[in-house]
Every structure is written in structure tokens, then in C-alpha cells.
Amino acid sequence: MNNRNEELSNFLKLKREQIKPEDVGFTASQNRRSKGLRREEVAILSNISTSWYTWVEQGKNINISDSVFQSISKALKLTKDEKIYFFNLIRQEDSLLASDTNDSQLPNFVKNIVNEINNCPIIVFDRYCNITYWNELAQSVFIDFDMIDENKRNIIRLLFEKPEFKRLALNWEKFVRQFMAMFRSYYVKNIKDNWYQKFIEEMSIEFPEFERIWKEININQTIESNIIFRHAKIGKLTFEMHTVHFEESDNFKCAIYIPSNIHDTKNKITRLYN
């Protein structure tokens, strides 16, 4: 089974197990062996045969029509981002790798935008979640990125490797889950890129927490959340974190941390950059 089919199989099985039978009209008997729904129950809800759904969940190389895709998505109660993820897994073609395009270098206009915004910490990262650019305030709030080897400047790795981040982020696990959910959306779009599989295997061996969270198969295309940090010099800070991408350069995203009024964050940030 290749990476794509294995990922599809794990994803559908997990989503099936997360649905309570009684919530979709089935009886949850004490003799039920499987967690959540059985395969045949998903098939009934999807209006397809059990054998057909079983082939899909087993990652067989079969063509899935749009109507079947929609009915399975509805049966498993997939979110918008999960439907995109599911679609990327069942499609036959793969997206172009960044190395095959002219979009592997950070455009100057992105740097100019980041440099002009001095009241919000901003971090720019590529489809591998490698940090490629940041503004001065991000370095003041988070960590001195210049002191980290460029080859190890990966936001996923840093979140697990650097104890500074665990001390800094009061809701560290939520923070990590959101970045990993976005990282997974990159992974499935570029699943033939061997870099991802190597990185995932290395991180799973080195950090058990990474492996545990990765197996949860959370998916988000973007991040929108409140994040709380404990800064060594100015105390608690609360930000609204948003990730945005640029149509002209889809290989890169910005994580923008907008200071909130909570914990007097706006005033504290002003003192940092003035």
C-alpha cells in the first residue's frame, strides 16, 4: 500500500470510529465490537454497497465519482477542510512539487509587506513549514531565529524540540495541533514528495508527542485561533493568530499574530517595538 492509500485508509477508519451509531439512527448494542460505525453502516448512509465502501477504505486504486465522494463525506460528517483532504487523497493526479515550479523563492513583495507591519509578529513559512522570513517583532516575542541553523528552522520541529516554546505557549498543545493540522494539508497535496515521509518518520521516533498527535489526523487549511504566550520580560500576551496565503505565491503562508486587548497585549507590544 502506497503512502496515499495508507493515509486514505487511516483517515476514513478514524472518521468512521468517531461517529456514534445512535447519532445517525443505528442502535448501539452492547455486542458491538467496533468503535463508532461499522463499514456496512457507512455504506448504508452513503447509499453504496458494503464491498464498494470497503474497497475505498482499504485504499484500493478505484475511481470514485463525485456523487459517491459527496455521499461518503456526508455520512462521515466531514468538515470543509476534511472534504478537501479526502478529495486530495482520492484524486489520481498529484500536484506539482514546488521544485517543479517557479514558486520556490520567497517573492520580494512578501518581504516588503512583512517589513512594513511592525505592530504584529509575523512568521513566513513554506509548504514544509520551514520558516523562511519573519519581522523584528516576531523575533522579540518568540525566539531568536537567527541563532537557529537554517536547515533546522522548521516550525513543527521547533515546537517539539525547543523547550522555550513549551514555556512560552500557555496553550502549547492547542498551538501544536493547529500547526500540525495545517502541515498535514500540505503533506497530502504533495504526498509523492519523499521529504514528508522522511520528516514524519524522524519526528515520530524522536518525539512521542508528535507521533501521538499525528495519529489523530486533524486537518486545517488555515489557522484562526487565540494564542496565549508568557513572555519573559512583559508577562502574558494574547494574540489572534491567522494564517494567510498569497495567490501570487501559493507555496508560502504567513502566520500573523494580532495583539488583542486581553492582558493589555496591545500596550505591551507597543513597548517592545518602540
UniProtKB/TrEMBL annotation:
Residue span(s) of domain HTH cro/C1-type: 11-83
InterPro entries the record matches: Cro/C1-type_HTH, Lambda_DNA-bd_dom_sf, MLTR_LBD
Listed SUPFAM superfamilies: lambda repressor-like DNA-binding domains (SSF47413)
Protein name: Transcriptional regulator
Organism encoding this protein: Staphylococcus succinus
